[in-house]
Each structure stands twice: as C-alpha cells, then as structure tokens.
Amino acid sequence: MKAPRLIAYAAGAGFIALGLFGLVSATDTNVTGWAVWFAGAAVAHDALLVPCVLLLGALTTRLPSSFRRHAQGTLLVAGVVTLVSLPLVLGHGRRGDNPSILPLAYGRNLLVVLGAIAVASAAWVLLSRHRKDSDGAE
C-alpha cells in the first residue's frame, strides 16, 4: 500500500477516535440518541441517496459523452444543495412567535441557486466546447 493512502487512513482513524472520545467523555451526551441518528443517516444514505444517484447516472447514459459528465456533475451538485437546504425550504424550526427564525423565502432562493448552478454548468459546457473547437482549428 502506498504511503499517502496509509497516511490518509491513519488521519481518518485519528479523527474517528477523537470523535468517539468526545462523544463518550462528554457528560451531557445522549449516546443512544446519537447512535439512532447515526444509524438513520446510514440507512437514509443507502436507501435513498445511493439509489437516486444511480438512477440519475443511468438516465444520463444516453446523453452524448461530451455532455454526460457535465450533466452528471450538475445533477450531483444540485442534488446536494437541495438536500442540504431542504430543512429550510420545508420550514423545520420555524416558529410563529419568533418571526426572525427562518425569515427568508427559502424555496425561491433554492430555485435561484439551482438556476445559477444550471447557468454555470451550461457556461462551462459552452466554454469547453469553444476551447475544443479553437484547439482543433489551429
């Protein structure tokens, strides 16, 4: 095994050990609640996220190879942004007695960000296609 991989494994194991030490040594930690949350995140990853990524990957296989990579990357970034912002969009944590909690139009803002991701991806495709065309013209 190569040295960089061993160093990365050692660093990862060190961070895991540090996290577990902090989890177990803290007096106010609900270890059972944490374990349920951790297991739920693993199940959600394996039961929801991975099948969605595989489905989108399969659906994009019919695209031309020059666009496939960009489309898959764009969908991946858009999916992660959507997943991270979903609690805000759904209003989890919003309270009627405190209007300063989650005061923005998060659904609209998510659409704006997704549009910006799409525009950036399209610009990247056009730029790379233009670069490829100009390299071939020489």
Fold blueprint:
Layout lengths: L2 H23 L5 H29 L5 H26 L15 H32 L1
Keywords: Membrane, Transmembrane, Transmembrane helix
Protein name: Lipoprotein
Care to describe what's here?
Keywords: Membrane, Transmembrane, Transmembrane helix. This is Lipoprotein. The chain crosses the membrane at residues 36-59, 71-90, 110-127. It is a single chain. It contains 4 helices and no strands. It has 138 residues and is mainly alpha-helical. It has a domain at 63-137. Helix 3 runs antiparallel to helix 4 (106-137). The longest helix has 32 residues, at 106-137. The model has no long low-confidence stretch (mean pLDDT 89).
Helix fraction, binned, reads over 70%
Report the portion of residues in β strands. Answer: under 5%
Shape, principal axes of CA atoms: extended
Q: Give the overall average pLDDT.
A: 89
Keywords: Membrane, Transmembrane, Transmembrane helix
Transmembrane segments: 36-59, 71-90, 110-127
Protein name: Lipoprotein
Organism: Actinomadura adrarensis
Short description:
The chain is mainly alpha-helical and 138 residues long.
Fill in the keyword field for this structure.
mainly alpha, 138 residues
